[in-house]
Amino acid sequence: MLAYQSDPRYLRYYEWEKRSPRDVRAFLKKLIEWQTARPRIKFQFAVMLRAEDRLIGSCGIRRQTLDAVEADIGYEIAPDLWGQGLATEAARALLAFGFDDLNVHRIWARCVAGNAASARVMEKVGMQYEGRMRENEWFKGRWWDTLIYGILEQEWRVIGNE
Questions:
Q1: CB–CB of 49/81 below 8 Å?
Q2: The dihedral of CA 25, 45, 98, 11: what is its sign?
């Protein structure tokens, strides 16, 4: 995880300038806490490259409360593997888990407006553009816009099995 989270291409759309072993350990500790929470409302999954048995990213789905009818998703893939459909595969798996196992009604995601590849992933899995929050995040010395995408369960049922 440290290897890909330290890559300047990865860091481009995050508030961090760099990632240290301590940063990644703290991140992993938070994910382990999610895993042991009861009831569990936040899930983070390792994305593995099976052929090499190598961690190449992570993806997650989060509800704010146990009875929440919506959840948000996120995904990250090692930059050296971008463009191979891995983020799309992870996002599809998250949607299936959210609708089939968590029984949510709506799933949404966001990305920095300049991150066209992430926006394309959301579109590929059937999420619809819902809006743009203008200059709502400040990092790296500037304001960033955020794009919001969402999909409803009934929309997923129509396209989710393609």
A1: yes
A2: positive
Report which secondary-structure segment, H or E, holds 160.
Answer: none
pTM for the model stands at 0.93
pLDDT digits 0-9 by tens, 68-86 = 999 999 999 999 999 999 9
Q: Apex CA 11: angle with CA 114 and CA 31, to 5°? A: 110
CB 121 within 8 A of CB 82: no
CATH number of domain containing 73:
3.40.630.30
Domain enclosing residue 121, as ranges: 2-159
Helix ranges (H only) for the chain are: 2-5, 8-11, 21-36, 86-96, 116-124, 153-159
Q: What is the pLDDT of residues 93-106, one digit of tens each?
A: 999 999 999 999 99
Q: Which two tokens stand for residue 91?
A: 């996002």
Count how many domains the chain has.
1
Q: Give me the DSSP letters along 53-79.
A: TEEEEEEEEE-SSTT-SEEEEEEEE-G
